[in-house]
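Hello forum,

I keep getting stuck at the same step: I have a sequence, I want structure tokens, and every attempt I make locally crashes halfway through. Rather than fight my setup again tonight, could one of you with a working pipeline run this one for me? It's a single chain of 293 residues.
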Amino acid sequence: MKLLDGKLIADQIKAEIATEVKVQFLDKGLEPPHIAAILVGDDPASMTYVAAKEKACREVGFISSVYRYPSNITQEKLLEAVEFLNADEEIDGFIVQLPLPAQIDEYKIIERIDPHKDIDGFHPVNIGKMVLNLPCFLPATPFGIITLLDRYQVETAGKNIVVLGRSHIVGTPVSIMLSRKSTPGNATVTLCHSQTMDIASIASRADILIVAMGKMGFVTADMVKKDAVVIDVGVHRIPSTETKSGFRLKGDVDFDRVSRKCSYITPVPGGVGPMTIVSLLQNTLKAAKKEII
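Reply #2:
Ran it on my machine without issues. Output:
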């Protein structure tokens, strides 16, 4: 078993981005790329993610701004905040951190984001272009998964890939991306979800298994084919007396047992998470260079 080390690959990509920022922006007297985030409420996971994004921005020389709003913000006020960032020419790209409070319609917020600043890749324009394999901002987590497979030279062409979970953030877009005529891609992809019959049997035939079910320890060793590649997207905080923070992270995969059977596996933490953040940086660099039109 070998680890698909997302932190290692993300650090390599950040070094590449930092060099490009210096050469293409700073050495030419230009402002570096500027990324912003809208953070609503005080959800611990969201706050941790935004803080990690800010740290990554500092490491590559980006400017980073965070706009914080209370959890009782109205939809009208949040739409005004989105329009403000759309109009700010100094900001190259921004995200609206999900999930949002119950009174907010996430889709209406996402639809209001300028597609040219949509570095999360969730706007219908970017999703549509992704389906057609046109230049666009790819959703950050699927983009990170694709990049990880590419950097480790995991062959996907002709492979049987099973994706567990059909969310618009991970499962659905990554299934589309891996079935396209591209590299990585050219795979035969099965997308499973909560209503899929005999999901364990389908998973056990996968050459590459991507798990984004949102259920801790969902995938057990009997669901994994020998020498399969396993990508664990799940992140769950559980109490722990062994860490300074008082909690530790677990994934959707029973890592200890599954890792004995597979050829490659992502750890949690340190797998898909760092790749998601670095994908936002890559999208922001594209936005600053006006590569997506």
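The chain has two domains: 28-115, 140-273. If your local run keeps crashing, start a new thread with the error log.
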